[in-house]
Amino acid sequence: MKLWLFFTLALLWLELQNGVCQQVKRKKEDGENRIRPGRKRVKVRYPKVKEKEAGSKSQSILTQVLDKGRFLRLGESLSLSPGKTMELRCKGTNIGWAYPSYLDTFNDNRLSIKQHERYSQLILSSPSAADTGEYSCWVVLCDGQECTKDGESTSATYIYFTDKEELFVPSAIYFEIIYLHPDKPATVPCRVSNPKINVSLHREVPAKEIAVDGTQISYNPMKGFIILNPSPEHKGAYYCKANSTTKTTSQISTKYQLLYVEVPSGPPFATIEASSNIVSGGDIFNVTCTVLGEPEMNVSFSWRYPGKGQRPVSIHDSWRLINRGVGHTTRISQSVMIVDDVETIDYGKYICTTKNKHGVTLVATTVKSHK
């Protein structure tokens, strides 16, 4: 009996040992974390997104220096009192500036610009209503001797100098001509020194106030009255009237003469004509080159002719405005060549080259000998 019990216990012990030996540890898969994760939170880090990629607008690099070392970052517009010196700063090691053009025209010594190590400084002393306008700055990028304007690092602010006596921004021109083109808006530039001033547009003959509906005609204190779709009915003499918030007397602007333009934009429309195409020795003749174009479009002339460099000639250039049709205004530009005491060398082809900002046009005529 004891032997049987001993034998049974021995078999049981062998089975248990065999089961333990057959247990094999599971091999961890590649990349499996060998440290059991705990309950501590892990901060997720997202990739940084650049400001330009995020679509946000970059901050202005243009600031105004205030009292006690304070700075004001400038936006679209700013109103300042006249008389007090204005100081602007633009961040960057190489900065370009733009400001009302008349400050350059009259070489105004009230304006000074100085480049420092990390910023550029613009100072305007004793400002007045005439200094109202856009002030802008930008970073200048240079590669050797070639420099360009960095369009992405540009700031601009329209600054009003709110003079109670000068409601309109003064102009050196008492009577200004405005050309109306059928294919683009026209502006009557009666700008004001305070954006809160009430301004109206008036025609002289027949005398009446022009309705401003925001569709055909709109008003912008930074620009003036804008005629969106000019037509012949808009031609005539105009002026603007401003009403002060502190005075009962209105103020009148510069007078404006609006002329409707007939000729579309493009290279010069030129013609050439000789006073006579058949001449004899000893005669005198002239060749006239004529261009019809936009009133404000300058035209340059140059000539090629048989006796160039060997024969003296007289050349006279001129231009004037003319009316063509009903209410249409055109500029006629002419160059006249005069050949005196004709010789054999003067016979041949006369070529006139005309040029404007849109292109070049050549016209020619031939002068022959009278047999």
UniProtKB/TrEMBL annotation:
Protein location: Secreted
Main location: secreted
InterPro entries cross-referenced by the UniProt entry: Ig-like_dom, Ig-like_dom_sf, Ig-like_fold, Ig_sub, Ig_sub2, PDGFRL
Entries under Gene3D superfamilies matching the protein: Immunoglobulins (2.60.40.10)
Positions of the Ig-like domain: 47-137, 170-253, 267-368
GO terms under cellular component: extracellular region
Superkingdom: Eukaryota
A Pfam family reported for this protein in Swiss-Prot or TrEMBL: Ig_3
Subunit structure of this chain's protein: Forms a complex composed of PDGFRL, TNK2 and GRB2.
The name this protein goes by in its record: Platelet-derived growth factor receptor-like protein
Gene name, Swiss-Prot/TrEMBL: LOC113113996
